[in-house]
Structure formats: structure tokens, C-alpha cells
TrEMBL record:
InterPro entries: TPD52. This is TPD52 isoform 18. Belongs to the TPD52 family. The keyword Cell membrane does not apply. Transmembrane segments: none annotated. Residues 29-70 form a coiled coil. Pfam families: TPD52. Keywords: Coiled coil. Residues 1-21 are annotated as: Disordered.
């Protein structure tokens, strides 16, 4: 498989955030016009895929909001549910801690 056919299978290092892309290409490795064109096509394809995914996500979020509206779930109800769940977790953790402390005390008394 030549370099142009590999596409996404290439294992070239990906530049870190803020790193100059040009710095990742060594002085001896220059891209041919064909390789540059292939990369441009791949770039356009990936940008198009990102745009499509953004549109799909927006549609899903709109659908989610519509379902919540039909179910009568609003932000205040969600907040109440989250607080109730959080309080349940806190009390369960507190009860579990008390139980463990009692078990530890009992074991100390037995030994």
C-alpha cells in the first residue's frame, strides 16, 4: 500500500495542541504535489464528516427536548430529581459509614 492509499491508516505523529504542524515534517520529508492533494481531499472529507456529526447532534438534542416536553419534564423537575438522587446517595453513604463503624467497634470488642 503506497502512502496515498493508506489514508487513515497512517501512523505519522499527530501534532500536540499549539505545536506547529510544519515542525512535525522533517526537513528531508517534503510532500509531493500528489500527497498534498490527497491530504487536502482527506481534510475536506473529515471537515464534512464533522459538520454532519454536528448537525446530527443538534437534531438529537432537539428530539431530546421534544421528548422531555411531551413527558412534562422541565429544568426545575430535573434539578429536583438530581437533588433527590444526590441526597439519597449522601444518606446511603452516611448509613453505610455508620454501619461500618459499628461493625468495626463490634469486632474490636470481640477480639
Amino acid at each position: 500500500m503506497d502512502r496515498g492509499e493508506q489514508g487513515l491508516l497512517r501512523t505519522d505523529p499527530v501534532p500536540e495542541e499549539g505545536e506547529d504542524v510544519a515542525a512535525t515534517i522533517s526537513a528531508t520529508e517534503t510532500l509531493s504535489e500528489e500527497e498534498q492533494e490527497e491530504l487536502r481531499r482527506e481534510l475536506a472529507k473529515v471537515e464534512e464528516e464533522i459538520q454532519t456529526l454536528s448537525q446530527v447532534l443538534a437534531a438529537k438534542e432537539k428530539h431530546l427536548a421534544e421528548i422531555k416536553r411531551k413527558l412534562g419534564i422541565n429544568s426545575l423537575q430535573e434539578l429536583k430529581q438530581n437533588i433527590a438522587k444526590g441526597w439519597q446517595d449522601v444518606t446511603a453513604t452516611s448509613a453505610r459509614s455508620k454501619l461500618l463503624a459499628a461493625e468495626t467497634e463490634l469486632l474490636c470488642l470481640l477480639y
